[in-house]
Amino acid sequence: MSWVHHPQRGVVRWRVHLRSSPEVVYRFLSTDEGRASFWAESAQEEGGTIHWEFSSGASGDGAVLERIEASRFALEYFDGSVVEFDLESDGREGTDLTLTNRSVPEDTTPEVAAAWVSVLLNMKSVIDSGTDLRNHDSDRSWDRGFTDN
User: Fold this and answer.
1) Exposure pattern of 37-69 as b/e (b: 16+ CB <10 Å)?
2) Domain assignment of residue 5, yes or no
3) What's the mean pLDDT in 37-51?
4) Do 48 and 140 meet the contact criterion of CB atoms below 8 Å apart?
5) pLDDT of res. 2
6) Which of 88, 76, 23 is nearest to 49 (CA)?
7) Residue 8's pLDDT band (cuts 50, 70, 90)
8) 87-124 as b/e: b if 16+ CB within 10 A
9) Domain tally for the chain?
10) pLDDT, tens digit, for every residue of 50-97?
11) Does the pLDDT of residue 123 top 90, yes or no?
């Protein structure tokens, strides 16, 4: 069976390989500092809810739905969709991460799919190389056509 990144309507799925262990990758997903290092300007969790703030000015809240140390992190995203990160050891000290975003409105699926590529590649850059590719500039945000925000 071949890989399908849109296996059904309303679902976006991507995979990325990271050189760090699932334990390290999980810490980036499950901590405020980790999420802020590659994903959002701020992603503070309080009482099981993450408050997201992005350089574009967008913000919102989403509940953490599932935590399985070094294996799975799932949350309700601020747009109401569900985002699941599944982590598997590659058998060589690295991680194969699968992101699945469910309940994505059909009219936004192409943009959401592209946005996740941007997030995942920045995540890879931060974890594997210690380099944040984002510009952190509200005048150069995703909604203005910039991929590096």
Assistant:
1) bbbbbebebeeeebbbbbbbeeeeebeeeeeee
2) no
3) 97
4) no
5) 67
6) 76
7) confident
8) beeeeeebbbbebbbeebeeeebeebbeebebbbbbbb
9) 1
10) 999 999 899 999 999 999 999 999 999 988 999 999 999 999 999 999
11) yes
Asked if the model's pLDDT at residue 5 lies above 80, the reply is no
Residue-range definition of the domain harbouring residue 37: 12-144
Which residue has tokens 């931060």?
126
What are 127's two structure tokens? 């974890």
Q: And the tokens for 46?
A: 């309080």
- Which amino acid, 8? Q
How many CB atoms are closer than 10 A to CB 16? 19
Q: How many residues does the chain have?
A: 149
Task: Average the pLDDT over 121-132 and give the result.
Answer: 96
CATH of the domain at 100: 3.30.530.20
